[in-house]
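Prompt: Have a read of the protein record below and flag anything odd:
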Amino acid sequence: MYVSCGINSYFEKLDVFIAGLNQIQGIDVPQNIAACAQKRTMTCACKLSGNQIIALPKELNPRFLSGLTEAEISSILSFAKHRYLRASSIVTNQDDPADRFFILTSGRGRYFFITDEGRKINLLWLTAGQIFGGATMISPPSRYLATTEIATDGCALVWERKVVRDLLLRYPKLFDNALSIMATDYLTGLISANISLNADDANGRIAHLLVSLASGIGKITPGGVEVSITNEELANYTNVTHFTVSRSLSDWERAGLLTKQRGKIVLRKPERLLVH
């Protein structure tokens, strides 16, 4: 889950406390305390006062808050808590009560679904500015339909269910924005996934997915568009074997279309993947 930490002035005391515990045989440091001490290694462009948000980064313009005045946005933000999120941490669990709503302010995340057979099905990716935990906004108490996992260290704003429900009534534009996001972003993701899965061959499915990820969550670098994804994840998303993914990537790397790195793929010529 996410980590809630105290103000920065407590970090030195936490380090001393943890060091003391480590010297006592048989005592393990609680994970949440250790994570709080490590929080200073994480950066966030949000303007904060403790764990209260004062202002969002200038370059971040969440669609959920579009069309609102600065005063309205400030009011909405005043009800949120700021949370640091560690990579690979689970923020919402499938089938748990939907009691919190989030805006990701930095980092990347993704939805996944666990089938009755225990298979993990990766769904949509999340980037900074996007919302998750939308089931919290529904009038009848609901449950999360999928699990939300943080892929890279990041931060998020969190509103409790009662608070976000009150805000929807106070600012109807929020409800309009939420409907717009569900009608466009989520549908776009569904269309991309189905195009990939319905490609004629395995290479086509992998290529379509890589190009879609590059346009959605890719990071522009001097060498090309960097996509953080593993071979196992590619195989899961495209319903092909790990061997097939490895062979396709190796072929494209020899052709100069991409380069492989640990946990990353840099697309040097994304447009050529779809015709190669």
Remarks:
- The chain is about 40% helix and 25% strand.
- The CA atoms of residues 98 and 135 lie 6 Å apart.
